[in-house]
User: Which sequence fits this backbone?
């Protein structure tokens, strides 16, 4: 081929059994199960096993996997010491990439080259790595919130689910059951989304047989960009900038007139409303009802922005997306905006590790070609003649 | 498209002006200049500017760039403290990914989304980021050699070139001029090599507008895999395993009979001998001559392996590659085998950052598609019915 498609848009880069999107109908499936059914009936722990292994686990397998996740919530104290050397002003995603990369040194992983492809298909190994990484990320993200403010973080609680424990460790308070349920659903919804940029990054790094910690650190770096995971933080910053529901319509008008994006609106993969957004919208309503309408003032601004944006963009198939509602909900849980992408990473690690496993099962190193558009051969010019 | 090419082999993923390979003729060009001419006349500092900017620098621009590189050899002492929290048993590439990711928190980078595409094309910004990253990597790799052995590392020396300073910091000895020259050539030869897996990883991470530190950390993770940069370490381990020149022929015979690779032989891109290997072979000869034939015993084993492998594989176009000779030369400089890939990363950072710059100049987020081969839609099964 002599030409290329920028961003490989529309170019198939892999085959996969993990998830599927029907952008016309606005549906998302994990291993064939509609996301709505998983959001309603499953848990993040169960969904992680489904994504990894391809099937819903039996009760005993789920119990064992949950036990392992709980047991791995403690990270070595050296990792806390490492985090203390990092500047409090740094971005949580940069902290998370640093901490994830360091896990490679603290915990062993298998040499998949020596073990052969089948060695890395070993289900116990895949589970062990997944458990270590998902539990560690939850702990590290929550710990950082305390460390960057100058406090010792609380230890993990083995009596709580993944979502509950994260909220407990993050806020040092007994988690509110409704908020913990919402967090669990948010983690399910963010766990996987076919071959997006960070998942593609996962495949590329996995394909050299790098350790799963190095793979996840690479994916975290890719997710951190404002064109990818960094977007959910910007939704909240936008709402704070607008300041009042009365200003929402004028703000949206101005952004559209200037051909600027309205953060949290639209998704390249969906021609209809993002199905995850619809689920979160229902949870926002549930939360408002439970609170007798007394919610954070930003929620009202959000509602006004959503209305103004959908009136103007809905006919083009542009609606509020998953970032729009998750930001509002995380804010309600007491999570600062700059931590939103780290929470996203904590969920997406389940998808990334499922793709890591799939890549190793049928690996070929990624080495595409380029269309060379540079200078033809020429001779070196000595410094004194330039 | 309904089918895909594993590893995107033969699929163009980008256009690029940076480097070009003619695999039939066995030639490699950086910005149009043959690698042989750069190895003979250029320096790593100058080659880095050539790769970044597209043209050989003027004497004054090179002087200023070198000054900046020298000035940035000091890293904040917090980074040393961070490195002290890492286990001495960890792999240097994992240390390097951790330290590179942490730079995002210690040093500012531009928000390219806010600044717009052209903002990131700002030559001063590109130079500042490149200088900070290349100088820091050199310092961190050398520091780690002392820290992991329990010693305080020496500080950098602003009177030395990049290659000389690295050898000084690594060994704490005045660098031997011939070895420093060889290191400089090794850095030039490893600086760039079109769209290999780690460079592709650079493009994917860059495309979300992640910080250049996050981008380089992702690329280091990808390079760390044994199918990519990890290979040069294995050459030396193989020579140590063989133990004597007399065993070389039998070893090669056995590996080939078992359809196993002989490390450091062959390269997917070249049908002839890797041009970088030819250059390094010349330097090995020069070094042997300078030492009156008295070199490390591993060199004799290497020569015997090379002879045995080329007799058996040369007719298939399989010859010793750049990894084969660089490993021997690094060993001669007193660099342990597990640090080889980190030295590779130090050089390749020049290429990665050139591709980072090029990607930002004409960016589109990487989001290829997948061929979905998984389950068709199905309904959730409650836990008690599984």
Assistant:
């Amino acid at each position: 081929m002599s030409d290329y498609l920028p961003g490989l848009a529309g170019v198939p880069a892999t085959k996969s059994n993990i998830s599927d999107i029907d952008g016309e109908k606005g549906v998302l499936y994990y291993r064939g199960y509609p996301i709505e059914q998983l959001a309603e009936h499953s848990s993040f722990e169960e969904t992680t096993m489904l994504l990894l292994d391809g099937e819903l686990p039996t009760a005993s397998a789920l119990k064992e996997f949950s036990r392992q996740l709980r047991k791995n919530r403690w990270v070595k104290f050296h990792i806390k010491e490492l985090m203390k050397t990092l500047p409090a002003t740094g971005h949580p995603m940069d902290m998370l990439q640093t901490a994830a990369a360091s896990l490679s040194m603290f915990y062993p992983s298998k040499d998949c080259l020596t073990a052969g492809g089948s060695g890395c298909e070993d289900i116990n190994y895949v589970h062990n790595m997944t458990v270590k990484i998902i539990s560690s990320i939850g702990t590290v993200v929550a710990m950082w919130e305390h460390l960057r403010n100058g406090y010792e973080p609380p230890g993990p609680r083995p009596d709580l689910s993944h979502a509950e424990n994260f909220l407990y460790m993050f806020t040092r308070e007994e988690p509110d059951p409704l908020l913990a349920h919402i967090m669990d659903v948010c983690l399910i919804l963010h766990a996987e989304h076919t071959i997006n940029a960070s998942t593609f990054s996962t495949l590329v790094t996995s394909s050299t047989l790098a350790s799963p910690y190095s793979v996840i650190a690479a994916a975290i770096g890719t997710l951190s960009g404002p064109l990818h995971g960094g977007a959910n933080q910007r939704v909240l910053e936008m709402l704070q900038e607008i300041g009042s529901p009365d200003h929402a319509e004028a703000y949206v008008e101005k952004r559209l007139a200037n051909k600027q994006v309205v953060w949290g609106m639209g998704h390249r993969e969906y021609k209809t409303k993002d199905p995850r957004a619809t689920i979160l919208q229902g949870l926002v309503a549930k939360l408002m009802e439970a609170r007798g309408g007394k919610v954070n003032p930003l929620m009202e601004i959000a509602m006004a922005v959503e209305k103004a944006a959908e009136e103007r963009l809905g006919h083009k198939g542009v609606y509020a997306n998953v970032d729009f509602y998750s930001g509002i909900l995380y804010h309600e849980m007491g999570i600062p905006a700059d931590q939103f992408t780290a929470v996203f990473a904590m969920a997406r690690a389940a998808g990334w590790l499922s793709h890591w496993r799939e890549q190793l099962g049928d690996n070929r190193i990624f080495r595409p070609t380029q269309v060379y558009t540079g200078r033809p051969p020429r001779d070196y010019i000595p410094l004194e003649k330039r």
User: Anything to note?
Assistant: The mean pLDDT of chain A is 93. Chain A touches chain B through 114 residues (CB under 8 Å). The beta strands of chain A are 12-16, 19-22, 27-30, 33-34, 369-372.
